[in-house]
Design goal:
Strand content: 15-25%
Strand order of the largest sheet: 3-2-1-4-5-7-6
Largest sheet: 7 strands, mixed
CATH superfamily: Vaccinia Virus protein VP39
Radius of gyration: 17 Å
Number of helices: 10
Length: about 230
């Protein structure tokens, strides 16, 4: 799948993205995102990046962690999702760190070297066509000692959990998405998981560009967080 076709998918699903995430994860994605922000080490005064920010969940959480002396940049290639993020991140809802929404390519970030103290990526790395290049760009824009936490779906190594995940995708995710007219957009999740590097390969790819890296499986291995340190 090309960058343009993936971008089209996310532009189309923007109006129902948040509601479907809540339903399809039974609300658990909010807990996983809180864990991700914690692992990113975003703290008071931090200069933060939420890459592939979607509708802004992680960026808003990072703004809360960074506080009034911090700054957050939410970056995505989907203008529709960025607009959704702007609408959700109202000043009276996020009165802490300012959030700047930037339309940009994760493979060619418009930031200087050694720019950010912390980064998150939520459900974005799996949809990037050149993961090593994305990790190299992330390494470039992070300050020495900075962390990034990367949350995404994974294929579990346990065959029982793997079977459950496929049943869940086939019998819950795709039918619910189909009800909203987005069958094809959500049917792509299963083939994208087949191509997504497993935990050990993610760690290797991160180390290849210079990071120290650890991977933490969650939700029985159906989700995971890759934590990297420059």
């Amino acid at each position: 799948m090309t960058d343009s076709s993936i971008k089209t998918i996310f532009n189309r699903i923007a109006p129902v993205y948040d509601q479907l995430n809540d339903w399809l994860s039974f609300g658990q994605h909010r807990i996983w995102k809180q864990m991700t922000v914690k692992w990113s080490n975003a703290n008071s005064g931090a200069f933060c990046l939420d890459l592939c920010c979607g509708s802004g969940d992680l960026a808003i959480l990072m703004a809360q962690a960074a506080g009034p002396t911090g700054t957050v940049y939410g970056v995505d290639f989907s203008p529709q999702l960025l607009e959704r993020a702007r609408q959700r991140a109202l000043p009276w809802l996020t009165p802490l760190a300012p959030i700047y929404w930037v339309e940009a390519d994760a493979l060619d970030l418009p930031f200087d070297d050694n720019y950010f103290d912390a980064c998150t990526i939520g459900y974005g790395l799996r949809n990037i066509t050149d993961i090593p290049r994305c990790l190299a760009e992330l390494y470039r824009v992070l300050k020495p000692g900075a962390k990034a936490a990367i949350l995404d779906f994974h294929r579990p190594s346990n065959p029982v959990m793997r079977g459950f995940q496929q049943w869940y995708l086939d019998n819950l995710v795709v039918p619910i998405a189909s009800y909203y007219g987005f069958r094809d957009e959500y049917a792509y999740i299963s083939p994208s998981l087949e191509k997504f590097p497993n935990a050990s390969l993610q760690v290797k790819l991160a180390r290849d560009v210079g990071f120290a890296a650890t991977h933490y499986p969650i939700a029985g291995g159906m989700m995971g967080v890759l934590v990297v340190t420059k």
